[in-house]
Amino acid sequence: MNKLKTYYKNAKEELFKVIFPIKEQIRSAYLSVFIVVTVISLFLALIDAVMSLSLSSIMN
Q1: What is the pTM of this model?
Q2: What is d(CA 30, CA 52) in angstroms, rounded to the nearest whole number?
Q3: Which residues contact residue 29 at a Cβ distance below 8 angstroms, ignoring those fewer than 6 apart?
């Protein structure tokens, strides 16, 4: 039982050390991820279209 109390005490102390992000940091991180995912998906769509066109021209 003593180990459980010690574990709980240490976990509580560690949680007080955590610095949670503020709303502006969350918003900027979300925007960055959104932009990167959008750019990568557009790039992959472009590559897919180019490869599809080139393959269809080779097949015909």
Answers
A1: 0.65
A2: 32
A3: 21
Helix (H/G/I), strand (E/B), else coil: 1: coil
Instruction: Write b or e for each residue in 5-31: b if 16 or more Cβ atoms lie within 10 A of its Cβ, otherwise e.
Output: eeeeeeeeeeeeeeeeeeeeeeeeeee
Residue keyed to tokens 């459980």: 4
User: Which amino acid, 56?
Assistant: S
Q: Which two tokens stand for residue 29?
A: 């991180």
Residue 50: its pLDDT value, please? 97
pLDDT of residue 60 exceeding 90: no
Quick one: residue 20, left, alpha or beta (phi over 0 = left, psi -120 to 50 = alpha)? beta
Rg (CA), the chain: 25
pLDDT digits (tens, 9 = 90+) for 39-52: 999 999 999 999 99
